[in-house]
Structure formats: C-alpha cells, structure tokens
Design brief:
Elements: H1 9-76, H2 82-102, H3 107-136, H4 140-149, H5 151-230, H6 246-276, H7 284-299, E1 303-312, E2 315-324, E3 335-337, H8 341-349, E4 353-355, E5 365-366, E6 371-372, E7 376-384, E8 387-396, H9 402-532, H10 540-570, E9 579-582, H11 586-601, E10 604-609, E11 616-619, H12 621-637, E12 643-650, H13 658-661, E13 668-675, H14 697-703, H15 709-719, E14 723-729, E15 733-741, E16 776-777, E17 783-784, H16 789-793, E18 802-806, H17 810-821, E19 826-830, H18 833-842, E20 848-852, H19 860-869, E21 878-882, H20 889-896, E22 900-903, H21 908-920
Parallel strand pairs: 10-12, 18-19, 18-20, 20-21, 21-22
Antiparallel strand pairs: 1-2, 1-8, 2-3, 4-7, 5-6, 7-8, 9-11, 12-13, 13-15, 14-15, 16-17
Helix pairs in contact: 1-2, 1-3, 1-5, 3-5, 6-9, 7-9, 9-10, 9-17, 10-15, 11-12, 12-15, 18-19
Length: 921
Amino acid sequence: MEKKIRFGIKSKIIIGYLIIIVCLFIAFIVLNSQISSLQKERNFIIDHDIEVHDLTNRIEKHLLDMETGQRGYIITGEASYLEPYNGAASSWEKDYNALYQLLNNNPNQQEKLEKIKGSIQDWIEAAGEPTIALKKENNTKELQQFFEKDPGRQYMDDMRSQFTSFRNVEKKSTETRATELDEKNQKIKIGLYGLLFFVTLISLVIAVVLSNSIVNTIKEVTQTIKRITASKGELKGRIKVRSNDEIKDLGLATNALLENIEERNWLQTNLAHAVTMYQGIASVDKLAEKFLFTISEMTGASFGAFYVREENDKGNLFVKQAAFADQKSEAGRASFLIGEGLIGQAALEKRTFVINDVPDTYQLIASGLGDVKPKSIFIVPVLFEDEVIAVIELASLHEFTALEQELISQVIETFGLTINGVIRRMEIARLLKESQAMTEELQAQSEELQTQSEELQMQSEELRMINEQLEERTKDAEEKTFELEAAKEDLEEKAHQLELNSQYKSEFLANMSHELRTPLNSILILSEMLEENAAKTLSEDEEEYARIIHSSGKDLLALINDILDLSKVESGKLDVLLAEMNMSELPDQIERNFSHVAEQKKVQLTINKAQDVPDIIHTDEKRFQQIVKNLLSNAFKFTESGSVTVSIQRVADHRLTTAMRTIDTDCWLEIAVADTGIGIPKEKHQLIFEAFQQADGATVRKYGGTGLGLSICSEFAKLLGGWISLSSEVGKGSTFTLYLPSLSNGLVDYEKVNFAYEEVAVSVEEAEAEAESETEITEIGHPVQPVDSSLQDDENVFQDKRVLIVDDDQRNIFALKTALAKQGMTIMTAHNGIECLEMMKNSEPFDLILMDIMMPQMDGYEAMQKIRGELKLVDLPIIALTAKAMKNDREKCLEAGASDYISKPLDLNQLFSVMRVWLVN
C-alpha cells in the first residue's frame, strides 16, 4: 500500500492564503494601472498648467519692471532705474519662448501668444526705447510732447487684456482636465469595490473549506478524549485519527501522554504503598524483610538480599539482615567490606549497577521443579547524608524495565532516612535504659544546675544591659565621629579660605605700602629740605611748619610699619633672628632713649637690674628692643606725674610654672614696666592687646595713638617664646610684665618660621643712626665707612656729577631733582626702563643712576640686567630705590645688578652718604 501523502493544516492554510494573495495581486495590478494613468494626468495638470500660469505672470512682471524702470529713469534721470528695465528686456523673451514651447499642443493659445509678443515689441519700439533715448539726450520738450499723447499706455492696456484673455482660456482648459480626472477617479472607485467583493467572496469560500477540514478532525479527537475521561480513570482507550496532518500528530502525542500517565500512576501508587509499609517497624531485621517482600512483589524480582552497615575494628562492614527466596538462608554471602566484590564496589562508588548479562556461576534461583539462572541483577546502595548505610541486591528471571528501576531508585531516595531512623530508635531505646539508671544522679545535679542557671540568668541580664549601653555609646560615638568629620571638613575649608584671605591681605598691604610710601617719600624729602632752609627764604613759622610736616610723615611711616608688622605676625611669617644680646647694656640704652622724655614730662625714670640677670641671653634683639620701647612709650604717654619704673630680674626656679619648664631654655627673664598713670579697668585688660583697641574712646581722644603697640608687643612676645601680663588699677597706674626665655637651643617647637616666597610685605627697618656710632649702616647691610669731616663739608664730590633718575612718579622725580640740584649735580630723568636705556645709548656717560623698581613697561630689575648685560656697564654705580619692600627684594636687586639698595621713603642724609661712598669709589 502506498504511503498516504501528508497534507497538514499549515499547508492547507498556506494554499488558502496563496489563492487570496494571487487574487489580491491581480486586483493590485489592475488598480495600479488605473492609478498610474490617473497620476500621469494629475501630474500633467500640476506641471503643465501651473508652469503656464507661472511663465505668464513672469512675463507680465518683466513688462511691469520695464515700465517702472522707464518711468523712474525719465522722472529722476538716475541710471540705476535702467537696471530693472534692461534686466527685464533681456529676460522676457526667454520666458516667452519657454511658454510658447509648453503650448505646442494648443495652436490657438500659441496664436494669442504671438499677438502678445507683437504688442510687447511695439511698446518697446514706440514707448520704451524712444523715451529713454530722449531722456539720455535730455530732450525734455519732446518727452513732454510724447507723454501728452502717451501711446505707450494704449499698448500696456492692450497687453493686459490679451494676458487676461489668455489666462481665462488656460483656466477653462484646467477645469476641463480636472473634470475628466474626477470621472476616471469615480470609475476606478467602482472597479475597486468590485474587486474587493470578488476577493472577499473567494476568501470566505476558502475559509469555510479549510475550517471544515480542520474542525471535523478535531471533533473526532475530542470525542475520543471525552470517552476516555468518562471511563473514570481507565486509561486503556486510545485515539484513532484518519487524517494525515497535525491533528494526527496531536492524537499520537495524546496516546503517548496517556501511556506516560498510566506508568506514572503505577509508579506513584507503588511508591506510596512502599512508604506506608515502614510505619510501626522498630527493628532493622523486620524492616529489611518487609522491604524485600514488597519490592519483589512490585518488580517481579525472584531473589534478593539486604545488607546494613555496621562499624567494627576492620572498618565499615556490611552484614546481611534479610533475604528473599533463599535456600536455607544461603542466599548470598553473610557480609562484605567496602570495595569487596561487585556489591562492595557499588557501596564504594555510591552508584547503582544493572547487569543483564549474568555469568553462569551466579547463584541460581530455586523453585519446586528445579533451579533457574536469573536474567538480570540489580544492585543499589542506600544513602543517608551522602554516606552508604545499606546495600540491596535483587535478581529477576526477566530484565528490569526502566520503570521498575525508577521505582526502586525513588524508594531508595527516602529509604536511607527510614533505616537511619529505625537504627536511631533502637539506639535511643538502648540509651533510654541507660539513662533511667542515671536519672537519680542527674536529679541531684539538677538542683545545683538550677541554682547556677538562675545565677547565669542574672549575669546574662546584666550583660544584656551592659551591651545595650555599649550599643548606645557606639551609636553616640559614630554620630560624634560623623560630626567631627563634618567639622574637620568645615575647618579645612575655612583654613583654606583663611590662607587665601591672608594671601590677599598680604598682597593688599604690600601694594598699599608702595602706594603710601611713594608720596610719603616726596613729603619727607621736600619737608626736610624746607626745614633746612638753606636759602634762608622761610620764616621761623614756615620752618616750624616744615618740621611738623616732616615729623608727621615719620609718624605715618611708623604707623605703616606697625600695620605691616602686625599683619606679618598674624600670618605667621615673621622672621625671628636669634642671636646673643648683651643685657648689661640694656639699662644704659633705656636711659639714653627715654631720659629726655622723662625730663620733658617731669616724670621720674627708675631702672633696676638684679644681680642674677645673665650678661648674655639668646633672643631676637630687634624684637626685644621693640617690645621694651613700646611698653615704655605707653607708660610715659599715659603718666602725667609720678614715676615710671623698669625692673629687670631673673625668674627664680620655684616660680617657674609647668608651661615654662616645658620650654628648652637657659633661664627665664622678667622685665616689668610700672607707671603711676591713669590705669586700665579690669574688664579692658584683654581688650587692649587686640589690634586698634584702647581702654576707651576718651583715652583715644586725649592721648591719641592707633592701638597697635600692645598688640604687636604681645605677638612678638609669643614669637620669642614668652608672654606679657598686666596688673592695673584705675587712677593708680599699671604694670606690664614681659616673661621671656633665653633660647640658646633655637625657637620652641610651636613657633615655626615660614620662609615662603609669597610672604607679607616686610616692614622697613628704622634707621637708628646713633650719634655716638662710628659706623653708619645702610638698609641693605653694607657698612659705610665714616667720612672725614672735611670731605662731608666739601661739596666737590657731587659737583658737576651726571646723575640719571629713573622713576615713574613725578613727585619723587621733583623731590630728588630739587635735592640733588642743590648739591651741584647735573640731573637727567627717565620714566621707565625703556627710556633709561635709550638715554644711556644716546647721551654722555652718567656717573650714577638712581633706579626705581616698580615701573610700567620695563621695571627696574629688567633695566639693570640690560645695563649690566647688553650695555656692558659693569662698574657704573646703580642705587635701587623702591617703596614696595618685599622680603628678598634686597637679594633680587643685587642679583639684577644693583650696587646698593635703599627703601622709600628716603632719608636724604642716608642717600647722600651712600652716594658719596659710590662716587668716591
């Protein structure tokens, strides 16, 4: 019988859809042909008619441009009006030719176009060109006569009417084509509806045929399934399908499912029976016998043995506990070790063995008629917690099926737990007997344990409370840690901001120092010259005015220095130069500096120096002297009568505090300045050590001052490792005590000196030229040898010397030029480094140059480098002058080529002394 051709549901559906698609394709071709024809006619209307109207409008526009350009030129005479005329005259014929070509299928319209062309040419020849030519000839009279007749207007009116007639014809032609297009569109719509009805009818026929073919077969399958369902669990019935399609596949799959369900039901039923048979068994022997009997009945096994693990000196030994169909208990060996024989190997590898090719020497199965050789052997280990606790071996006269093997495997999965439970119960029963013997002893110990348990419970409660407290403290610590971290970040941010503020403040003070010292330099020099009154042209009052101006300028300079010193201390960037200081000379220095003040104010000055004060201490002598001078200046300022007493003594060892002992020092000194002045209220003791603060407003008004002195003294004392204390009573006087260590081993650890390059502007050291000093020191530290009196009086050193002053400030130039001109010098000036170099190249050689540092275009550093380098003037004396006294400026000036260095404001005597040295040399 030939194999029946398979014709599946998918093939049926595909064929049905293919028929529908073919019909749709044919309909699409017909419809597309009609739509294409319609589209061509539509495009013709759009492209042809619109282009005709567009070209017509463009020709009219050209005529309008020509007329407008002609009239504009005739009226104004401007040649620019001819540009649209000439452009339109050259363009209208191109558009006309294009329009004429477009109407090649319409002779009537072409004839009208030819008439329009003739009218245009007539207008150009009769009205356009003649009038333009007359205007170019400036023939106004003939133009006036022409426009009185104005033949061009008639031509334009004729052309407009011709264009209107032409457009009306084109419009009617467009409407006719649109009407024809609508009729074709209506025909296509009717044809589309007819095709749609035809395709729908074919689709319905195909759908009915296919659905009947599929539904009838499915109904047969459904009826068969209902009959199986109505049989109340009987799964013997099977589905029969005649068609050779997917429905048949469904029926075969359903039959396979029924067979599988039938096997699963058998498996689940036997598995449930096997599990329930273990209940109530209390010994391993009975459990083994029951198991072998049940499994043999379920699987048809004819022979079996059950081995359980026992531990002995040789290791794990498996002992036979039960057998099925044995011959006088000789079925199999009595015991075996792991790895011994095939059954021992199964226990070792923990896996199941199924042997269908049984050897001839295997144990025969006995029956009433004789012995039979088994066909299949099944060995399976029983596991509990991944350990083999038993091994079962079964033999059968038939081969074990896969379903029987699966049944045994599933039973064995939980059977290990059962065996272990029976063994444990047996062990528990044995232990129970032993425990009963120990009950009385345990009862005695129970009471003791109860007491200990109560104590432990109390301790546990205490530990729990302590633990809760520790957890709370831990949480608090974590919160505080988080707060500290946030505070730390905030402080770091503020520290960074303070650093920036300090930098800005330092730069501001440095710039302000330059801006203040520059005019102050002129004030001091000119006031000093006025005070000397060399020409004897000033009265005594005018000389006094000059002295007051000069004194006020010096006071302003001292104030600038105090502000800069305070800023430098606050920024932590003040230089502290430790050296030996002779304390034996201190009383004489105080006497020499303040005795005349005491005489003027009629105040008694007393200086007491103890014998135990060492002659030499190690400190910064300049800062120490500044502290003492400020304290004494304040004492005399606020003391109208009475006395000022200075006491210098060594702090005894028993008076040393803990803080004083932590500092590595040779000794501690105590310098006390006591006065009988106005005194300071107790609530103001701390305030007066702050910058710009005094006791009260009245004090400021009566005694003056800026309030910087004590603030600077306090900061200087801290830098030197000490401090200042105050004892005062209003109306009775005050005592300021300076405690200072001798720092022979260097500064204390907490006072770090910052040598950063960008430090605050340093205050200019006051030139303290002592009357009895035999050596005069300039601000750069070069010793100037004493000048013979005859040489000082002799002005021939300066006479006719050529001096070049380089400064961008006219006030400084005027002051220096006036002072030096009086000495008989020839003065030349330059406002920056560039002018300086030009003058030196083009003028006679100079004997000396006074060079300002801060100048525009080219500063003093660069100018000095070019003088030394490019001009090769190595020996020419150059004295650097600057009002911005930054630290290391001296070194920078000398490196740039300066011979000497003086900071502004200038002291004329000091300037003349330095100039004499370099001019003589």
